[in-house]
Give the backbone structure.
Amino acid sequence: MSRLGDLIKLERTRRGLAHKDVAKKSGVSVGYLMEVEAGTRIIRDDQARRILKTMGMEKPLESDFSLDDIASTVDLQSAMPEIAKARQKKAGDQQDKTEDVNITGSIWLDALSGVLQHVPIYNAVMNEVGSRLMPVKDGKVEGAPKDKVYYYKAPDDDMRGFRVHQGDLVLVVPASTVQDDTMMLIQTPQGKMLRMMKLLPRYQVMLQKYDQAFESEIINMTDLQIVGKCIRLEADLV
């Protein structure tokens, strides 16, 4: 299935246009357009943009979501309920519902703002250095409140024995208590650090790191400030 084809089909259907109308305006054949929508023909991103523009979508980018973002992230079929609700709300807000077909922009892109989230990437001093687009489900990203999730960019190789190298991105979700055998982001007098946790008797915790060799430090749990739990790793293979 072609997700760009899905985008074109959704926009054409929303505007009540026939295949022949869109094909004529776009300078493509009806058969080609139908194959693109059916997912049996590959279409380039620039051509998809051109077809969408001929249907009246004046802005190729809306809500900071590009076609590349949408096509690579969203399962449009699962997003259909959100799209339908957005369409009904938009139509209900119009005094003259016949104007719905001529609405500038795209309803499905508005709807996708409810199923996509730009998750920020922070460096060691918590300055934002980028973002990743992630799906939102029931107002949450990876089961956590969508505004509380972020990526932490590993500042060094302290955790490479645990497969986290300098520059890798670790997805952090809120957590306030220590979890055994889990990598967590902690706050120390020297700044934020990634460490593996090992629970010990008498309310103590072993903080583990592994650069050139395995190292550990035992501290009292009351002296440990947890920032969040690390649940995903993104790394470049170059």
